[in-house]
Every structure is written in C-alpha cells, then in structure tokens.
Design goal:
This protein is α/β, with parallel strands linked by helices. It has 6 helices and 19 strands. The chain has helices spanning 11-21, 55-67, 135-138, 154-164, 183-190, 287-306, and strands at 2-7, 27-31, 43-44, 53-54, 71-75, 79-83, 92-96, 101-109, 113-115, 131-132, 146-150, 169-173, 195-198, 201-208, 213-220, 225-230, 233-236, 240-242, 273-275. Strand 7 (92-96) and strand 8 form a beta hairpin. Helix 1 (11-21) packs parallel to helix 6 (287-306) and helix 4 runs parallel beside helix 5. The relative contact order is 0.18. The structure holds flavin-adenine dinucleotide. Residues 7-13, 30-34, 36-38, 40-41, 44, 46, 77-79, 110-113, 115, 133-134, 137, 243, 246, 277-279, 285-288, 290 line the site of flavin-adenine dinucleotide. Belongs to the class-II pyridine nucleotide-disulfide oxidoreductase family.
C-alpha cells in the first residue's frame, strides 16, 4: 500500500508525486494518459521560467522529473471507482478499469478536465491550427487577427472581452437569442468597439484551407439560412468538464458543476483524500496553477500522515 497515491498524471499529478516522494514516503501515481491536457497543446508560453515550449515536450519533462524519484508510475490505468476508508486513518482503495486495485493511506485526485467540444466538422481537424479553447494560453497567437468566440455564457463573454484587447476583431456567437453572461460583463462587452455579437446562431462547420482556419459557417436559427464568416481563429467557450464521473457515487463532495471541493490544504470533504488541479473548484485552469495546487495537496497529505 502507498502513503500517497495520486490519480492523474498531468501537471498537478506530476507535482504531487515529486513533492510526496521528496518526503521519503511510499508514493505512486496512476494515470490514464501521463501528461494530461498538456499533450494536446502546441505552444506554451506562460509556464513561468520556461519562455517557450511545446506540449509534448513539457509532458516528457514532467515525466522525466517524476522518474528522478522513487515513484511507482502506472500509466494507462483508468480509475473507475473510489472506495473510501471505513475507519479513521484507514486505507482508501481505487479500482481501475483493468481490474487492478490499489490502496493508500492518502489519495490525491488530479484527474483534470476537458474542454467541451462543439463536435462540428473542422473542429478536430483545425485544433491548434486556429481552433483554440484557452484565451489565456492562445490569445496572443491571434494578435491583429479576426477571431470568433463560441458561447455567450460568462466564460465566452470574458474571453471576448479579454481577446478584444489583443486581436483586431472579435465576433461572439450565441446559440440562444440572448447572452447568458452576467449583466456587468454584457455591459462591458457592449462598450467595446471591435466586438460584434451574433445571437440565435448555431455553428455548423469550421472552415479551413487544409492548413489553418479561414472561416466559420453557421445557421441563422430563425431563418434556417446558412451563412459564412471569414476569420482566422475560433475560441470554443462552451464549458470545461471536470473528469469526476468516476467519483459520482463516492462521498467526495463535488460542486454543482462536478468539480471537487477542497480546503486551503487541498483536502476534500473526506479526511485523507486530497485533490489538485483542473478537477477542483480552483477558479483558473492553468498549468502553473495546477502545479502549485499539486504541491499544496502533497504537502497537505504529508501533514495529514504525520498526524495519524
Ligand atoms: P490534466 O492535464 O487534465 O491531467 C489529468 C490527468 O488525469 C491525465 O493524466 C489524465 O489521463 C488523467 N485522468 C483523467 N481521468 C482519469 C481517470 N478516471 N483515471 C486515471 N487517470 C485519469 N495552460 C497553460 O497554463 N498554458 C497553456 O498554454 C495552455 N494551453 C492549453 C491548450 C490546450 C489545447 C488545452 C486543452 C489546455 C491548455 N492549458 C494551458 C490548460 C492546462 O493544460 C491545464 O490547466 C493543465 O493541464 C491542468 O493540469 P491537471 O494536472 O490538473 O489536469
């Protein structure tokens, strides 16, 4: 059995593993896909102290760093069930799709999140070639260009306001006839000269020239007419889904959006079970933040262990 077992091998899980192993305690990490979302990323320019890198390169660096320590790495393992300890200070168990099961005194849940996709033609093909999901990450790559933001909720409107300060022009698309964002955000958006809003529109396709995005097709829902708009980038902002489906039956408390609720030490509602990174209610989902929260959760777990 482990002292600290992390589920998830993204930036948060890598940080947790390193911080735990450095305490000289039995440390393991099990992940469906070591590297996490970073593997799907092209340029990364905001991981402080690394001026520029690429996703796969950073993923390899994370794994190499973990391998410097005595950590059991179990890749390609998908957790399907969490069985919490039945006695205070007892061992928690995690069951995997492979049929394997692991026990540990503490757990760190770091299963991350995924962007909700539109599932329209061209979206997957032009991902990282004009199709983007994270304005904090990729906004500066579209400097001086015309981009669309898909989604008129808070995240879509925030993204449009953010991007309007960087790109030449933003067109915000909303499926419904009204935006759903907070009034104060809508007011701010309306005040910007280089933003326009198309409501009642359903995106039907992302167009490109084979290499990069060059436009977007949408259905004007009232008339059923299909229209095209030429542009160079599309930011999809229709939600971030935490990977917590496997925890729904567990006693770990989740927010209404399915994110794991933690305290300042990274502990969940279940003693001895911690969480870190995008899977939690942490407000901003970034690599540097995931790494920091992984360190917090590992130190929180260590603190918990020395009190048992
Ligand atoms: P993740 O990276 O999501 O890792 C989750 C881990 O858990 C993975 O190993 C996954 O396989 C595993 N997992 C999931 N479910 C299970 C399960 N049931 N059982 C076992 N393992 C499981 N951030 C930046 O700071 N800068 C950027 O430039 C940037 N660009 C981005 C570009 C794209 C296209 C995307 C998608 C994200 C980008 N981000 C960027 C966000 C950043 O990647 C995330 O904030 C960060 O990866 C979160 O780390 P994490 O460890 O919490 O989760």
């Amino acid at each position: 059995a482990f002292d600290v077992l992390t589920i998830g091998g993204g930036p948060a899980g890598a940080a947790t593993s390193i911080y735990a192993a450095r305490k000289g305690i039995r440390t393991g990490v099990a992940a469906e896909r070591f590297g996490g979302q970073v593997l799907d990323t092209m340029a990364i320019e905001n991981f402080i102290s690394v001026q520029e890198t690429e996703g796969p390169k950073l993923a390899t660096a994370l794994e190499e760093h973990v391998k410097q320590y005595d950590v059991d790495i179990m890749n390609l393992q998908r957790a399907v069930e969490l069985v919490p300890a039945t006695t205070p200070g007892g061992e928690h168990e995690v069951r995997f799709a492979s049929g394997a099961s692991l026990k540990s005194k503490t757990l760190v849940l770091a299963t991350g999140a995924r962007w909700r996709e539109m599932n329209v033609p061209g979206e997957a093909e032009y991902r990282n070639k004009g199709v983007a999901y994270c304005p904090h990450c990729d906004g500066p790559l579209f400097k001086g260009k015309h981009v669309a933001v898909i989604g008129g909720g808070n995240s879509g409107v925030e993204a449009a306001i953010d991007l309007a300060g960087i790109v030449a022009h933003v067109t915000l698309f909303e499926f419904m006839d009204e935006l759903r964002a907070d009034a104060v955000l809508q007011k701010k958006l309306a005040s910007l000269p280089n933003v326009d809003i198309i409501k009642g529109a359903r995106t039907t396709e992302i167009n490109g020239d084979g290499n990069r995005v060059n436009g977007l097709s949408y259905e004007e829902r009232a008339s059923g007419e299909i229209k095209q708009l030429a542009l160079e980038g599309v930011f999809v902002q229709i939600g971030l889904v935490p990977n917590t489906e496997w925890l729904k039956e567990s006693p770990v408390e989740l927010s209404p959006r399915g994110e794991i609720i933690t305290d300042a030490h990274g502990m969940t509602s279940v003693p001895g079970i911690f969480a870190a990174g995008d899977v939690t209610t942490v407000p901003y989902k970034q690599i540097v933040i995931a790494v920091g929260s992984g360190a917090t959760a590992a130190l929180g777990a260590f603190d918990y262990l020395i009190r048992q």
